[in-house]
Design goal:
about 200 residues, alpha/beta, Rossmann fold, five-stranded parallel sheet, 5 strands
Length: about 200
């Protein structure tokens, strides 16, 4: 399911002005949902956005891929996608610097074009509060989901799992074969936000 994109910058005019002014404020939390394709990340994003007790802006690989023209993707898909992914991380940092919570729907794979992917992400966001959530699902179930979706190829999840970054420091793990997206969202909010008010607008 594709996320709706509201503004190219993602920020309201008054928020952009405040960012340029350099006004200091508490930074928003960056929550990275990391998992292979068809592991259930986007369903969790939707469940989180349906909640009333917390508010997130969302950035996702699919959204940033749409920013690249089809001709360029056909010419050199990973060159341009890798650039878009790095820009996505800088965008997430901007949201956080503005005091906004942001969800990243992505995957920390160590392809040649992205390497060192995990290190690059941590360096970009080193001054921001970051939690990485492991979205886990057995690969055989991901394979079945890929076939059912039709827009993924059968072994895509397995290939991604083989090149997943090593040594990722996860804040928590959710298992989408055992719990619903809503239950995963509940665990994420309770673990990362506790009793604190998470809603920011």
């Amino acid at each position: 399911m594709a996320h709706r994109m509201i503004r190219a910058s993602g920020l309201k005019p008054d928020e952009e002005k405040e960012c340029r002014s350099g006004k200091e404020q508490e930074k928003g939390r960056i929550v990275f949902l990391n998992g292979v394709t068809s592991s259930g990340k986007t369903s969790i994003v939707d469940a989180l956005q349906d909640r009333e007790d917390v508010f997130f802006y969302v950035v996702a690989n699919d959204l940033f891929e749409q920013m690249v023209g089809e001709r360029f993707l056909r010419e050199n898909y990973w060159k341009y996608l890798s650039e878009a992914i790095r820009l996505m991380y800088h965008s997430a940092k901007l949201y956080s610097d503005m005091g906004k919570n942001v969800l990243i729907d992505g995957i920390l794979v160590e392809r040649e074009e992205l390497r060192p992917h995990y290190q690059t992400f941590t360096e970009i966001t080193r001054d921001n509060p970051v939690d990485i959530v492991e979205v886990a699902c057995p690969l055989e179930i991901c394979r079945e989901r890929n076939l059912a979706r039709g827009d993924r190829y059968e072994t895509q999840s397995e290939e991604q799992a083989a090149i997943m970054a090593q040594g990722i420091r996860y804040s928590l793990r959710v298992e989408t074969d055992k719990t619903t997206p809503e239950e995963c969202a509940e665990k994420i909010v309770k673990t990362l936000f506790g009793e604190r008010e998470g809603r920011q607008e």
